[in-house]
């Protein structure tokens, strides 16, 4: 059995693994703080306050719902370490007082600039984007600049397939930057950029691209081919529903429903080829064409999903 020599480097390695294993704790603590409206409580007090003052205001101050103070203290200790709140220990030995930081100001529910809806109320990021044009623009730009990185590789990597189809729809195509490059290189293809209404409305016009708004859980436009962006293909091969750039947002049942709407026949013969040709192992796409087989086979992996 291999043994690890416990020098500084090894211990550092162990710490890194622990950090990844427990990083969810940060997110859970942040979610609790948003749900308990701790930032709002401090903000409406107008300055730093003690833990028991925070506790007394939680859930409107009703005695039945007062939180466990020890647990609250632990949440606050973690969030102070993560610089979400500050703590000040008075020199006279009084109770420590907690205040907001530039980060927790983003958690105020009534502020115009708030990220609280992303952590609370079970709202999806898409709902937040549809209500908030600024966030919508930021999110769409972020997506489009990530996909630009691989556009060129896609154009050369799929020459044969792209040459052989007459129409193509990019499902969840964002503002259409990928498909606009495809139609520039392959002007014979009738292309559709398909995404939610608020995304498509914010999309720039591109020559040859039809933007169609819709919900991929209801219907997807017909075409010879479907393209869905996928990133981090090494992970995709092991766990396709987690890391596909569109499908990663959804659970297995949702993904199967989307794929059913795509009416995909045989898709995805591309991962290994793509990697061999492009080498970096970072990204790939789904490219499918209609056929009779109603199952999706992930070449090189054991995954086969029945979409009948
Ligand atoms: C990770 S982004 C990828 C955007 C683009 N394909 C790219 O690679 O830059 C996922 C996209 O899926 C879209 N989306 C989410 N839910 C959708 C739905 N129900 N119907 C259609 N598109 C949806 C989002 O609006 C978003 O543009």
- The CATH architecture of the largest domain is 3-Layer(aba) Sandwich
Q: Indicate the mean pLDDT.
A: 74
Task: Label the overall shape.
Answer: elongated
Please give the largest β-sheet.
5 strands, mixed
Helicity range of the residues? 40-55%
Q: What's the level 1 CATH class of the largest domain?
A: Alpha Beta
CATH superfamily of the largest domain: Vaccinia Virus protein VP39
Task: Reconstruct the topology from this structure.
Elements: H1 8-21, H2 24-35, H3 38-45, E1 49-50, H4 51-57, H5 69-81, E2 85-88, E3 97-100, H6 116-119, H7 125-131, H8 133-157, H9 159-164, E4 167-171, H10 177-185, E5 190-195, H11 197-201, E6 209-213, E7 225-231, H12 233-238, H13 240-243, H14 252-262, H15 271-278, E8 283-289, E9 295-297, E10 304-306
Parallel strand pairs: 4-5, 4-7, 5-6
Antiparallel strand pairs: 1-3, 2-3, 7-8, 9-10
The protein binds S-adenosylmethionine.
Domain O-methyltransferase dimerisation: 18-109
Organism: Hibiscus syriacus (Rose of Sharon)
Active site: 248
């Amino acid at each position: 059995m291999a043994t690890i020599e416990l020098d500084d480097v090894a211990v550092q390695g162990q710490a890194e693994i622990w950090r990844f294993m427990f990083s969810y704790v940060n997110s859970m603590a942040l979610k609790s703080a948003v749900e308990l409206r701790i930032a709002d409580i401090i903000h409406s007090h107008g300055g730093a306050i003690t833990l028991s003052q925070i506790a007394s205001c939680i859930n409107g101050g009703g005695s039945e719902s007062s939180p466990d103070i020890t647990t609250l203290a632990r949440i606050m200790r973690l969030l102070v370490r993560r610089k979400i709140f500050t703590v000040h220990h008075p020199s006279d030995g009084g109770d420590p007082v907690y205040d907001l930081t530039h980060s927790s100001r983003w958690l105020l529910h009534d502020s115009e600039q708030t990220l609280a809806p992303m952590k609370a109320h079970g709202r999806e990021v898409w709902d937040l984007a549809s209500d908030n044009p600024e966030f919508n623009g930021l999110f769409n730009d972020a997506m489009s600049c990530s996909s630009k990185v691989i556009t060129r590789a896609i154009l050369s990597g799929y020459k044969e397939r792209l040459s052989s189809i007459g129409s193509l729809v990019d499902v969840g195509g964002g503002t259409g930057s990928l498909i606009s490059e495809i139609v520039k290189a392959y002007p014979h293809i009738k292309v559709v950029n398909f995404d939610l209404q608020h995304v498509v409305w914010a999309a720039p016009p591109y020559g040859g691209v039809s933007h169609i708004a819709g919900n991929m859980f209801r219907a997807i436009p017909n075409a010879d081919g479907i393209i869905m962006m996928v990133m981090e293909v090494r992970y995709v091969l092991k766990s396709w529903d987690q890391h596909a750039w569109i499908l990663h947002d959804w659970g297995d049942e949702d993904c199967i429903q989307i794929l059913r709407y795509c009416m995909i026949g045989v898709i995805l013969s591309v991962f290994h080829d793509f990697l061999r040709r492009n080498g970096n192992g970072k990204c790939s796409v789904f490219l499918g064409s209609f056929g009779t087989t109603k199952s999706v086979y992930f070449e090189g992996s054991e995954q086969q999903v029945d979409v009948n």
